[in-house]
Malate/lactate/ureidoglycolate dehydrogenase, LDH2 family (Pseudonocardia thermophila), 354 residues
Amino acid sequence: MRLVTADALHEFAASCLRGVGIGAADADVVADVLVHADLRGLDAHGVYRLPAYLKRVVQGMAGGGDAVRVVAGSGAVRRVDGGSALGPIAAVRATDLACDLAREHGIGLVAVGHSTHLGAAGYYALRAAQADLVGIVTSNGPKAVAPIGAAEPFLGTNPLAIGIPLGRHGAFLHDMATGASREQIRRAAAAGEPIEPGIAVDADGNPTIDAAAALMGSVLPAGGAKGSGISLAISLLISMLGGADADADIPLMITDPPQRQNVGHMIVVIDPWRLQDRDTALARVEDVIDRVHALRPAAGVDQVRVPGERAAALARQRAAEGIPVPVKELLRWAESLTALGLAEQAEWARTTAG
């Protein structure tokens, strides 16, 4: 394991993206989203994803933000065509547009189609919350989850993230997937390790802890029928509003031959101060958080926390001490970057691995 500073990891990712033709500003956006995930411990959405992003750009299946544009809407709602941009580029622009609409109208809804993987949905909800607004963010993706009652995958692990400004408590951030991460299962399979029970089934629909068997089958919805319903609702809304493909029709990020994705996102931003006096409302939510913190902890728990606090604490720690990156991961990056002709960046990864 090697500790890499957030700044160094950001510059590495941005340099790789610039190296395959992504403009500097767009490269910084994507790097920021990836490093945000690594800082908060969401490693499967961090720079781990970079080789796949780069490969899709080189294949012509994704790119920068030149083609991102508003194609429909009026008042507080807009539909954005992502132009096959890397998902973070389209999603950041959609989030910022939704924030502008919320400031003008009190609420803004932006639906996105023809995009790609957006990374950690919480990044965008937190972006709104840090702008003193409420953010609600969803996205769909390739099928991985078997709906309740099904023995085969049909839904994505469609995330839902909610960010709320909390005054002296910073921001509330709940960022959840509606199914177990296939990337985590893939990493377990590569390491020859079992997965947690109850998160996946094999190709015959039988429960399994064998990661390789799970990859041939389906992951299960988080929370059973409730998670299954939320995931389907997300898929329906994004297809209806953003014009994205159904989850079952979206190809995986890396396929042979490569295929374009039509992933969708939906960002809703609310200006809460249109409805409540800001100081009064913040005092109310600050009191709620204080009372949650004061609850008697269960056995083995040091303190009751609210969503986002543990990840925020980890982000502060990693910002100070460095982000842990496995040596095997650095060497994988070096191999991928060499194949893409990014010799300087490959050497950085190889040297950092030691």
In short: The two ends are 10 Å apart (CA to CA).
